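Render this sequence as a predicted structure.
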Amino acid sequence: MNAAFAAVHAALAECDPAAKGELVLALSFPDGDFAVPDCSEDPAAIPGRPARPTLVHPREVPHRGLGSAEGRAALIHAVAHIEFNAINLA
């Protein structure tokens, strides 16, 4: 496994959100080398996520319309969560 792929793999597999963010921010590919190796060794090990996410009732989530930057960011964030779970289920 090359160094760039190992760094991305470590970021994906991290379960702690703060640590995951730090690992993602530390990613860099100065040489542009990002060959994807065979990932069949343990595909179920990634991506990492908290063991028990905090559940929030929909009534407790602030409503943001698409007319604001915050509302559009919330929509993109929600779609990212949907895609994240779809990838995990796949």
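Summary. Residues 40 and 46 are 11 Å apart (CA to CA). The radius of gyration is 16 Å.
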